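Tokens for Rhodopsin domain-containing protein. Go.
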Amino acid sequence: MASMPSPAEILYQEKHISDNKVPNIIATNAICFPIACAAVLLRFLSRRSSKIRYEADDWLIVAGLLFTLGILICDCVGLHFGSGKHLILLKNPAGFAQVLISAEVIYNFAMFTIKASILYLYKRVFFVSRNFVIILWVVGIFVACYSITQVFAAIFQCMPIDSNWNPLVKHYCINTDIGATIIAAFNVLTDFAILILPMPLLYALQKPTKQKIQIMGMFLLGGFVCFASIYRCIVIHELSHADPSWSDVPVNIWTMVELCIAIVSACLPTTRPLFSRATGKFGSGSGESGMKTSPGSDPSLNLQQTPSDPSQSRKFAHIGVLGDLEHGQTREVSPSEKI
């Protein structure tokens, strides 16, 4: 919550009355959000062009994009109230505090839906064993738990709730700085976990090294999300409760950057058919090789290899997008192992 600035802090703000970070906020939103929208659009165009039905991961990424739009709206409302300038210039301090809390809540929903989309995609792409699916569930539940915790922490960080925007009300507050740092650390941890999870399976592909590097590269682009999450964790320590409209700007900026990069990273592997068609290399996937895929399979990465033994086609169809997790290196998943 905002606190009353000291006389020294007020004097500092008056001396820097012309400071302005509004262009930084506008530029970040104007660049990042359209890129995220384009990535989601390309994802759906790829699904449509490949005649692949939309799955839960597609709708989850749409939800993530809508929550990110909510962050953009919060930024716009914050600008109207005086975000990007010092506290003494705020037009509506109570409204600004409410916007900050709303943005905290929306951010956690956005990040959860984006990560859930990636995990569900992994489940369909790398469905090779029950153990791997269990790991995905563990990571997903962990993300859900700390996201829900942070939502409640943001809303009830001070009691009564209206003391979050009215420092004159008698109140009790938790240490939000420590809580925000812990949640940000969890966020970074799960970013790396999601990034690393598919790497052993991708490395095991029986493909030329160059092609394996290209495939792994698509997934490793998620490393930019890790960088954004780490930097956001750093700038959280720069928050000042006496001047939140000014000190919160870097957090706002890197929140938008992190969410948009996460959306792009989640969509990029699914857009391969579009880029393959554009380069004239599409046509070796499961749809054109005569291999039939089971319901829920997803050949959008166009990595399917035609097994030398036609009888193996049905056996490895469930692998879906990564049909080239070689049939010599994988085994059929029995019905008892499926979740």
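The CA atoms of residues 192 and 226 lie 6 Å apart.
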